[in-house]
């Protein structure tokens, strides 16, 4: 398990957290940390290097998009870079655009019904992150 990719779930909804943990475990992600509040999510995300951060927009204290922005600012100083998947039930005109503007690599509307749907969302985030890195190094 020492080679497992670490995942941080920033989500204040226990039902969504439980669902994500089960689905991530089925996909082979075992080192999963949960932060239920925005401040805690920032602290955890900046104290350790995570392969994947899943941030729900609706967090108490500091919303999930502000968490992602803070993480990206920290990463700019540290040189680390996590893949970030934004989640939200929000029905604003452009929730995808809001998530991407905050620094997410990809966005998924919750609830995510199956592990296959989560896998597609994670793969979308990985692909977007890879394309960003290729653009930066070109």
Word description of this protein:
The protein has about 140 residues and is of the alpha/beta class. The protein is built from five helices and five strands, in the order E-H-E-H-E-H-E-H-E-H. Strands 2-1-3-4-5 form a five-stranded parallel beta sheet, sandwiched between helices. Strand 3, helix 3 and strand 4 form a beta-alpha-beta unit. The protein is globular. The protein starts with 6 loop residues before the first strand and ends with a helix. The model has no long low-confidence stretch (mean pLDDT about 85).
> Mind summarizing the main beta sheet?
5 strands, parallel
pLDDT < 50 stretches: none
Continuous helix count:
5
> In order across it, which strands form the biggest sheet?
2-1-3-4-5
Beta-strand portion reads 15-25%
The average pLDDT value, as a whole number, equals 86
Count the strands? 5
Q: Cα distance, first to last residue?
A: 34 Å
Overall helicity: 40-55%
Strand-pairing-aware structural class: alpha/beta
Rg for CA atoms: 14 Å
Overall geometry comes to globular
Q: What is the N-to-C order of secondary-structure elements (H for helix, E for strand)? A: EHEHEHEHEH
């Amino acid at each position: 398990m020492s080679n497992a990719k670490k995942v941080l779930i920033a989500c204040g909804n226990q039902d969504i957290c439980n669902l994500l943990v089960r689905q991530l475990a089925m996909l082979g992600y075992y080192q999963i940390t949960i932060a239920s509040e925005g401040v805690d999510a920032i602290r955890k995300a900046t104290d350790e290097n995570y392969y994947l951060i899943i941030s729900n927009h609706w967090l108490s204290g500091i919303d999930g998009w502000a968490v992602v922005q803070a993480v990206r600012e920290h990463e700019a100083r540290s040189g680390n870079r996590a893949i970030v998947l934004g989640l939200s039930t929000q029905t604003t005109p452009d929730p995808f655009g809001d998530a991407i503007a905050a620094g997410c690599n990809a966005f998924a509307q919750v609830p995510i019904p199956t592990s296959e749907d989560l896998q597609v969302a994670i793969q979308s985030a990985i692909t977007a992150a890879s394309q960003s890195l290729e653009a930066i190094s070109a």
